[in-house]
Amino acid sequence: MELTDIKRTEADKKAEAKKYETLSTEEDYPWGLSVSLDDATIKKLKLGDLDAEEEVMLVGSGFVSEDSSNLVNGKKTRNIRIQLQKIAVTQPTRSDPASELYGDKK
């Protein structure tokens, strides 16, 4: 599975700002792309002591719970909402490049 970086570019930010007539430079990622976990869920996922800005890997499955489209100023826009049902969160492992190429020879 290939992961796609969804960070907004400066061009994305300027286009959005133009849409609302203000320059939006505060957030690097679009609205709705963060996942909040409460204390009980953190314990359930056995995440331990993660600190702010610590990198994690998140894998999940779910279903599209909402699909909508709008016509604004002659342009069609589409939005979907995904209801996550199962997730896994881990810290990325830094493996030996030789092991990745040739496998473990143990």
Protein described:
The structure is a single chain. This protein has 106 residues and is of the alpha+beta class. It folds into 2 domains: 1-34, no CATH class; 35-91, no CATH class. It has helices at residues 10-20, 39-44, 97-102; strands at residues 57-72, 75-90. The chain starts with 9 loop residues before the first helix and ends with a helix.
Helix count equals: 3
Shape: extended
> Uncertain regions: pLDDT < 50 for 5+ in a row?
none
Indicate the percent of residues in helices: 10-25%
Task: State mean pLDDT (0 to 100 scale).
Answer: 81
Strand content: 25-35%
- Our count of domains comes out at 2
What would you call the structural class?
A: alpha+beta
> Major sheet, described briefly?
2 strands, antiparallel
Instruction: Report strand order across the widest sheet.
Output: 1-2
